[in-house]
Amino acid sequence: MSTIVFDEKKPLDFVAIGRLCIDLNANEINRPMEDTVTFTKYVGGSPANICIGMARLGLAAGFIGKVADDQMGRFIVRYLERNGIDTAGVVTDRTGAVTGLAFTEIKSPADCSILMYRDNVADLKLHAAEVREDVIASAKLLLVSGTALAQSPSREAVFQALDYARRHGAVIAFDLDYRPYTWTSKEETAVYYNLAAEKCDIIFGTREEFDLMERFESNPDRSDEATASKWFDYKARIVVIKHGKEGSIAYAKDGASHRARSFPANVVKTFGAGDSYAAGFLYGLMRQWPIARSMEFGSAAAAIVVSSHSCSDAMPTAEQVSRYIDECNETNRS
Amino acid sequence: MSTIVFDEKKPLDFVAIGRLCIDLNANEINRPMEDTVTFTKYVGGSPANICIGMARLGLAAGFIGKVADDQMGRFIVRYLERNGIDTAGVVTDRTGAVTGLAFTEIKSPADCSILMYRDNVADLKLHAAEVREDVIASAKLLLVSGTALAQSPSREAVFQALDYARRHGAVIAFDLDYRPYTWTSKEETAVYYNLAAEKCDIIFGTREEFDLMERFESNPDRSDEATASKWFDYKARIVVIKHGKEGSIAYAKDGASHRARSFPANVVKTFGAGDSYAAGFLYGLMRQWPIARSMEFGSAAAAIVVSSHSCSDAMPTAEQVSRYIDECNETNRS
Amino acid sequence: MSTIVFDEKKPLDFVAIGRLCIDLNANEINRPMEDTVTFTKYVGGSPANICIGMARLGLAAGFIGKVADDQMGRFIVRYLERNGIDTAGVVTDRTGAVTGLAFTEIKSPADCSILMYRDNVADLKLHAAEVREDVIASAKLLLVSGTALAQSPSREAVFQALDYARRHGAVIAFDLDYRPYTWTSKEETAVYYNLAAEKCDIIFGTREEFDLMERFESNPDRSDEATASKWFDYKARIVVIKHGKEGSIAYAKDGASHRARSFPANVVKTFGAGDSYAAGFLYGLMRQWPIARSMEFGSAAAAIVVSSHSCSDAMPTAEQVSRYIDECNETNRS
Amino acid sequence: MSTIVFDEKKPLDFVAIGRLCIDLNANEINRPMEDTVTFTKYVGGSPANICIGMARLGLAAGFIGKVADDQMGRFIVRYLERNGIDTAGVVTDRTGAVTGLAFTEIKSPADCSILMYRDNVADLKLHAAEVREDVIASAKLLLVSGTALAQSPSREAVFQALDYARRHGAVIAFDLDYRPYTWTSKEETAVYYNLAAEKCDIIFGTREEFDLMERFESNPDRSDEATASKWFDYKARIVVIKHGKEGSIAYAKDGASHRARSFPANVVKTFGAGDSYAAGFLYGLMRQWPIARSMEFGSAAAAIVVSSHSCSDAMPTAEQVSRYIDECNETNRS
Hints:
- 4 copies of one chain form a homotetramer.
- Chain A has 334 residues and is of the alpha/beta class.
- Chain A has 10 helices and 13 strands.
- In chain A, the strands form 2 sheets. A 9-stranded mixed β-sheet of chain A has the order 5-4-1-8-9-10-11-12-13, with helices on both faces. In chain A, strands 3-2-6-7 form a 4-stranded mixed β-sheet.
């Protein structure tokens, strides 16, 4: 079995590197943003959500990133700390950068969109020299978010973090999390995603994200197996490919593949589903659960988050997830 | 008397050029923004506020500007139109610019600040070729806001608008409205403020703003009279210099000067005071009132706006202002 | 007669502001640059050429500009000083800017072109605060070159120089010298050329350059008279419009117009013709010669420069120009 | 023995990717550039020089790069073609980029410097999508020059070329060729140099360049052996570390190390020494010579180039190098 072994001597279970931003969620939902009037502020950004998710699940989590020197930046750091997340690796920008914003629009549970503010954002100003090697050295698992590769100097910071993780034997998970803004071209994205993926143990992404990475290659049938197999030639041991409503499939280096079951949910919006799934799945792997059980745990966590108004703030505890799985199982049985 | 004559044959009383943005006002006030959770969305930007103020006072008003091609941009145009403002001169950006944002923080009525998002904003992308000569030709009064001079191509659009106004005999008012972000240096500001001010009939600003314009000159005593007199050598007929709590002073080309009285207010925040003052003052001038009465009307309008939560949305009608003046007078008398 | 009066008490006859660069003239001429192998280095840039021309004609000349902190920059300053030009107003860039380059290609006397290097050039980095008011205060005549308006901060430096010239009573000449590179758009050029031209006493340009300035106006017949007359409504007293081979025409505010005669030349290349013309013409005006005689002197100076390999280095002395006029007259008579 | 095997079925011996530029060498030498007047034009840029060197030595060589759409760009392509170099991989920029320039100053044989023009240069505008996979697939050996990593999109083009080389089994040589201009920071350089070096078979650089790459590591004694050994953990088989006048040392993966002997030369300037050395050394490896003999051949080629005025144009034929070695050996013997 291709279980991934984590170095139990390390004090920190998990550290994420990348985007820290603010979600401004419309309070009036099921209508276009032109008709909304008030917004509620949450901490956001995919790696931030996953990190908060991991902390809620009971793991010792930390973050490596950069925040603006303003009220939004201070709000973010405070929120992380209140969730028990180690912020020793979070530095404050001094160049006048701002905090990235995501205004969410929920026209219907199935029609959600985001209005992004990504110009001059602090999270993309993290320098390689600001990445704390000691923080990475102390962590069992490093999560890299693809958006952090979108611009210099954050791009270099990620590659430096990958190098530190290799040096110190941390397992590396790569959440592709492709967002077109801030990238110059799809070719640029493909080049850096591939350079990073070569160095990772666990890779998560949608079929479309893997297609993007195969821009200079030939995979005419968009075969998941061909995709996964390419990365097993490098360092990967698990490759998870998501197919939206059709669910996701996880390939392990030993040749096995696993499909996730999905859980019923009272969907408010789709945001945050991937982040809570990632948190739940990684949590399972760290507990040495089989892949299938880890995927189920991730799916249940996702079902809980899409049923509520926020992403970060709705991340469940391990007990909540387990209870939710039990409840669904009972419902099914009855 | 140096009354300013407006061309009564023109159908539009007033047109403003410059910033259109969104204010996000914290609903929880009297605390730092780190502790606020929800925000309410309003149309903002100094010239937008003045224009809305003029429309509320009953004048035929229009706007020349640029909005983002997104939900925020559409909200702004819709709000202007609902207030009866002509938006024929408002164009939509197609380059992916965003809407400027101003998050307000009200720690106390006397301690207010703004967190600005001004990177890649649509309002500064207005091109000279997009300024509608016909709209300016149809207007009695053009208001120019200094922030629109902060960057190209908006800077060129303003100079082109000034040229159209001169050609078609519109009276020109210049509200200095200096905001340090987006300007490269104080020298740059001084140069363009001076170039614009040379072409204006009415100039409003704080003592600090006029000091900035005199950066390359000698006015060691910071004399208001010297300042006003310089502009009377160009085209100016009224120069209003604001001294914060000490009130403001208006100089007329004929040599007269007038001090404004201030009105009692139940101050919630100080934002919007200058904009409502400008609207009230210009309204008075357009009704051919003496300068002193126009200033009083502006001060009363300002007192009303600082007593409420928003800027634009709180702009009073002429009747409300008159009633407020009457009430204050009665209170004084009693 | 609309003779322009210069303030004889001022010690400096002439000061130019703008571009200082390097010409690299192909030594092998009458062939494409792909076939040239060696280049000779000269000081170049239109205002530099005019300034060197004025110094050669015997006037006390100075320069306001910025050079790179490298061998090219030092070469330029040294060359100016060797020509007796006051370089107190020439500052050295400290930001790593380079010296603008112009590689000339002479395929035939009638087919000349220039390959320009204008990225990150020192001359466009002159700041308003670096313009020496005392140098302008000491000068009878300020020459502004349009290329210096192409970018910030040089653009602001020019407007500041114009303000100093007005304050101290210097006559201002504006050589439009439009070069498309470094400008963002023709609209941008039109706006700033017009703002500058409003403040000038003498304006030189080609018909095409004046067309560009009339981009937002109506002059359907491209009438020189309409063009000149517009500027007489501002401050201009002489407007010279050049029509290439058809010669140029000078309008004076008093209503008179004058056409220049052209001189026979053994043309090597066309570069430098306009600059030597400007130097000769302004020299005549400063000697209080009638416009027609000043134009003739400029034309003769131009004929001398186009007959040689360089621009700056070929600028003639007053004696050379006079002798050339005499020789041509004799030839004509015989 | 760790001889490197080249795929003999491939038609192209060698392909280089990176900088193509123009050297402008002062004709008047042994003086500062302020005192030079004429320049001679040559094709330049380190990988261009090496490629020309390889072609002169008799190998089938090609180039992957980008040139400006001007006379300089056309001169470069023509020169490469005249030297028998395949330019199928050389594309022409259409964005208005210029050709990089290097003005050389030779104050004395030991005191040489370069004045660089590297703003907006065509060579750094090569896109990943413009790299011809078929050209790399046809080549036995790919040479990557570090300067091509300095900026996007050229940086991505290099990584894409490295991926194509891996896919098609080309041997990869990496010439660090660090030039501080165009890089944002030393940290940025370290990150990308390391990412590229991991994928290379042969790495050349000075001790200072390897120090730069070890910025985030610990090699306090600056040990060449520690440096080489790090890269042998990746893909490297030969690491050459240059120590200026003290000569260079080559490490092979099998543990052997070799020091180069140097050849007497009548030094005109030091430029081009490294490039001719690289060409000679790689030529030897491709002929399956032992490392020591390849180094000697490189040293002799370098001695020939530093004795002449140009870099590219002075690259010797194999016969010239062999004859030079023989002559030196005879001199030594006598």
